[in-house]
Amino acid sequence: MPQWRQGLTKSLHKTRSMPESRYFQLATVDASGVPFCRTVVFRGITDENELVVISDTRSDKYNQLGQNSNAQVCWYFSKTREQYRFSCLATIITANQDISFVKQHWDKLSDAGKKQFLWGEPGTPRNDGTALQIEGSFDEVPPHFCVILLSIEKVDFLNLRGNPQNREWHQKDANGNWVSQSLIP
Ligand SMILES: Cc1cc2nc3c(=O)[nH]c(=O)nc-3n(C[C@H](O)[C@H](O)[C@H](O)COP(=O)(O)O)c2cc1C
Fold this sequence. Notes:
The protein is of the alpha+beta class.
């Protein structure tokens, strides 16, 4: 396991009672290079060092990652005062591509979580005064539900504890082995 991932495992453990530590910021760029950033929920990390996020193929982030798979994650753990900045390459798995994989993630959601995907087209105008209707069923994966896998390629870690603070850079060498370097913060 790479050194940075051992650190991330510890950060997650130390902050396990804090729901806000399961949110991170995900930045993407659109076709003209304009950046967009939003908060998403951490759903896990694979053995291949991919962060797992669930999302919607009707969202801007889906279109942006389809045009440019480069993404950056910024994740701050306030309790331990640690920031991880992950440079990632995104792969999106849709229900069309791998229904059993996508369904595993759909089935883990609470009904309240599933509802987020059943209120109609995100980002389109909403009529004032009318309640949103659920379209579809909790038992079936909606066609627009997707899983984003963010493969971590480079890591810029900063720990604010200590004087001076501790900053580390991690990236893979030509053979794919992770190498680490301490940096002046
Ligand atoms: C705490 C929090 C968690 C969120 N988690 C997710 C998530 O896991 N997946 C997601 O697609 N959007 C999530 N959102 C909503 C996004 O931040 C964003 O508003 C939405 O996905 C539309 O983004 P886009 O138009 O840039 O694609 C979350 C928002 C908040 C405030």
